[in-house]
Target: LysR family transcriptional regulator
Amino acid sequence: MKFPTTKQLRYFVALAEHQHFGRAAEACFVSQSAFSSAIQELENLLETQLVDRTNRQVTITSTGQDVEVQARLVLRDIEALVEIAGERREPLTGDLRLGVIPTIAPFMLPTVMPALRKAYPKLTLYLHEGQTQVIHEKLLDGELDVLLLALPYELRSVETLNLFEDRFYLAYREGTERVDPERYRYSRLHADSILLLEDGHCLRDHALAACRIRDSAKIRRFAASSLLTLVEMVDADLGITFLPEMAKDSVILRNTRVRMHAVGEKSSRTIGLAWRKGSARSDEFHMLGEFLRKHGQR
Model:
């Protein structure tokens, strides 16, 4: 009896996730023709149709959906096997797939990555940037090994390690009449004054909680889709916002008139690591955490 290869299972899981042959092939770093052939070979091997193909879309059949669930479990078990086999190897060597949220990546990684490469030259780090919910699912599916993210956040089946506190600062356009940073009071802000990221970004929730933003009338309905857009909106004096301390003096503020001002010691988010509960690489991730704690703070 012939069995599917891990490559075929990985490709099929990617296809189920992206619902598009081209995007799934790109995510797997192979040509679309090679990707399609692997999926066809998997269907032939299993003697069943996993995918309904049309010119415009891909639909996973009911059998394919069941196969996808099992394929994810198989791939996760294989990942666990590799972790067990590597328990005795030198720590922070080999491949490590790190998921990181977009409100940390542009601020910490430019500083941390060169230092990490120098300290651990045998470590090959693969980065995946995405919102917390997305990278959490990829972690549980075995696609990522460890996450660099902001806490608190409700995460199931993981262990976490707090690294350091990242304070929130008031961000405003220099010369704005919307706020006096030296005499900032939340109660003095007018309606539609506060700009935030759209739902799905944990920075939005952390800013709301840490900066005690309770009056929804003071929040503009139009939300930014990215940090860059948020900074551009503040630079255009469309409102004020709250940015993490790690953004201070960063590239994202360069060539803008956006300034940052401290608003209180208790207004902060926690930067931390998360990995699958019971991972054989737990000690290694603690080592990584210590390194990030030392080199990741401004």
Remarks:
- The chain has nine helices and nine strands.
- Strands lie at 51-53, 58-60, 94-100, 123-129, 146-151, 158-173, 241-244, 258-262, 268-276.
